[in-house]
Design brief:
The chain is α+β, with helices and mostly antiparallel strands. Helix content is 31%, strand content 34%. It has 2 domains: 221 residues, Hsp33 domain, CATH 3.55.30.10; 47 residues, CBS domain Like. The strands form 2 sheets. It has a 10-stranded mixed β-sheet, with helices on both faces. Strands 11-12 form a two-stranded antiparallel sheet. It is elongated.
């Protein structure tokens, strides 16, 4: 039985770097069971999820985020919703998408919700010939003023993100030779590649391997696929259609219809009488 996926956070205060290591084995396994995306399409779904889940690092308690990609070339729709507690849900449409594009072009939208605030923050970016790692790094550069590198494993459902922290955010010792992000990654990538190849989900082994590189362990958080769909939400969605369509048109002459959640594939049987009653 797979253990819950987990995000581990480390810091090198001396040199001013942060590292986030994601073991996404359970989440990716759950997506393979829930969604019908196959072949190269699922490999792309996996890569997109492992890259974008790194955004969880920048959610404060009570915050949640939606990460939406509307790609025109090639055509696909990727959606990821997550909150600070580590709950997430994601989808890739169309489900018969069977490509592994290295780059894509389209719109990227970030919607961030704050506790006790009705209006969310929204940012729209244009992605031109970008891959998912580049998009995540652009978001961190523009929204958080961080330089980062996201690296995916080819052997396991894992990823890590290395970020160079701004001086004002790090209580670091004086560094004689300023180490660049690329240089720092070169110093640690062999050990991290070995960790990828082991494909271990054991927290102790992951923590020890990265701590031995000179980084201090800060915290870890479970990441779980959890959908917040409900019958009431499905009813509300169908009701919203009645403004432009008649109930007869919506039900196509039938007494009931099946409404399926795109995220978790749960099916809800909705009757015409229910809609009329509401």
């Amino acid at each position: 039985m797979l253990v819950e996926s987990r995000l581990f956070n480390f810091i090198d205060s001396k040199n001013g770097f942060a590292l986030s290591f994601l073991d996404g084995s359970k989440v990716i396994n759950d997506l393979a069971i829930i969604h019908d995306v196959k072949n190269e399409g699922f490999l792309f779904f996996r890569d997109a999820t492992l890259s974008s889940l790194q955004l969880l690092n920048y959610l404060k308690p009570g915050e949640s985020m939606g990460f939406f990609v509307d790609s025109d070339n090639p055509y696909f729709r990727f959606k990821l919703e997550l909150n600070s507690s580590g709950f997430m849900r994601t989808l890739l449409l169309p489900e018969n998408f069977d490509e592994l594009p290295k780059i894509f072009s389209g719109k990227v939208r970030i919607v961030k919700m704050f506790p006790n605030k009705a209006t969310p923050y929204q940012s729209i970016l244009e992605a031109k010939a970008k891959n998912f790692n580049d998009v995540v790094n652009d978001i961190l550069k523009d929204s958080y003023q961080l330089k980062s590198i996201v690296t995916l494993s080819e052997e396991s459902d894992q990823s890590y993100m290395l970020s160079k922290l701004p001086d004002i955010n790090v209580d670091k010792e004086k560094v004689e030779d300023g180490i660049s992000l690329d240089e720092y990654q070169k110093n640690i990538q062999d050990k991290l590649s070995e960790l990828f190849k082991k494909a271990t989900s054991e927290p102790e082994e992951i923590t020890k391997t990265i701590s031995d590189l000179g980084l201090s362990f800060l915290s870890s958080k479970d990441i779980t696929f959890k959908c917040n769909c409900s019958r009431e939400r499905m009813l509300g969605g169908i009701l919203s259609l009645t403004g432009n369509h008649s109930i007869e048109d919506i039900f196509d002459g039938k007494d009931s219809l099946e409404a399926k959640c795109d995220y978790c594939k749960t099916t809800y049987l909705i009757t015409k009488d229910e809609i009329k009653g509401v």
